[in-house]
Amino acid sequence: MSPLALPITALLGPYLAAFLNALLPSLGRPLLLACSLSCAGLGLKAILSGSPQLLTWLGPLGVQLAIDPLAGWFLLLDGLVFCAVLLDGWSRPQRASQLTLMLVLLGGLGGAAVVSDLISLYVTLEVISIAAFLLILSETDTNLWIGLRYLLIGNTAMTLYLVGAALLYAQTESFGLSEASALPLCAGHVFLLIGLFTKGGLFLNGFWLPATHAAAAAPISALLSGSVVTAGVIPLVRFSLLNEALALRIGAVGLASALLGVIAGLICTDVKRLLAWSTLSQMGLLVLMPASAGLFGLAHGLAKAALFLSCRQLPTRALAHWNLAHCRPDQRLAFWLAPLSLAGLPPLIGALAKTGTPSLAGPWLAPLLSLIAILAIAVYARLWSRGETTPAPGDLTQATASDARCWSAGVVLLLALLWLPLLRPASLTPLLMPTKWLWLGANLAAGLLLHQLLQSQRQGPTDAPCTAPPFVLERLEHLIGGLGLMGSGLLLSLPGGWPR
Fold first, then answer.
1. Alpha carbons 223 and 228: distance in angstroms, whole number
2. Count of alpha carbons within 13 Å of 45, Cβ hemisphere only?
């Protein structure tokens, strides 16, 4: 059997299934479940094999594939998140068109994880953008501007990406990602980075992310924050592993994104926006630690998908009225367990993910990472707060209470997967050293203390659990301006300064 047969079948399967679902809508859910399990199985096989498999499909000018452990972690993540979202909505009616879009989205994500040439990557990222845009609009047309904004900023960034691909092709006569990485740092790399920073939701380029992920319906938000956003960071990780100069710049932007995300999470007023800002911060940490990016992506995606799925039928989204005691038991469990995993508490999977080595170095790095960890705990502590006892406008407490026995199978699956390290207890040994516990305990104590101090300073309850972008920098014109600022900064950082 050709070595291409299995991966090509698994990667093209979702597109064929989407076509079949359009003809036979009753098969939609079984087809999506089969494709999700197939994607997860291909990822697990790539992780366990340990050795990269480099393939070319459709001849020398065709698609270059790199099925390696890095791609395996993200394929596994995509399969598990789609399974969980499907299980979460299994008992509710679902339109065939939504299942078709989810199948196309799964196919695009699988392609983005394994392709290793710039043009195939462009095509898969655009497929993902269009499918995600239509899914955002599929629940309600009130998200029209949010969806259009997501599409417009993505298309602008990817146009710059194409310019970068053309500039690099002029020097290498190849669209291969490894050939592009072998070149000295140049303007072509900068244009590529602008596109990928935007798709990955990093720093100024990622200001589109909080409003988009917060406005979508809970299952769509789980897909966006758990899986879709990783499509843009995978090529950044590959660049970091191949080119040290690119790794330094990507790491610096990642660090700035991690800090910006937790600061914004401390001052936002909406639960879903808090989770979305946390995604922006976590993606920054992911690209900062390229050697362990696969495991980091899996840990973040499982936890964040569980949190967003738990946002369905919340009593209120306004943090000023937030009271965890009013949530369903599965929601309470998710809002406790998933943030603890993101904070790195052993033996949850998030603890293993945070053992990677940063691509930056310096005596200032460790204190800065500790500060980000403390701020992140202060952000998550807002979810653990009992909040005000006064009911929120449109309070759904009674409806939630009547639905108390309806545990979400998808959330339960994701929370169970957070305990994966228990399958290999030896992997936890380095995390059980007294110094690690002291560091974690000190960060937890400092984060909880900071939360208490900030909670007393925050304004009283407000009747505005908003989903619209509250920050001026989230407007479309400023998002476009952010691309220009980032591009100018990166060009100035080139050896020799601004290109002439």
1. 6
2. 11
Give dist(CA 65, CA 55) in Å, integer.
Answer: 5
Q: What is the per-residue pLDDT for 1? A: 65
- Greatest mean pLDDT range, 298-312, 355-369, 389-403, 453-467: 298-312
Q: Name 390's Cβ contacts closer than 8 Å, sequence gap at least 6.
A: 321, 461
Phi/psi at 274 (5° precision): -60, -45
Q: Looking at residues 359-388, what average pLDDT do you find?
A: 88
| Region of poorest pLDDT, from 219-223, 308-312, 389-393 | 389-393
pLDDT for the residue 184 = 92
Closest CA to 78 of 32, 126, 134: 32
Query: Measured between alpha carbons, how far is residue 177 from residues 53, 158, 193, 253 in Å?
Result: 15, 16, 13, 20
Kindly report whether the global pTM for this prediction surpasses the value 0.90: yes
Between 493 and 160, the higher pLDDT residue: 160
Residue 394: per-residue pLDDT? 52
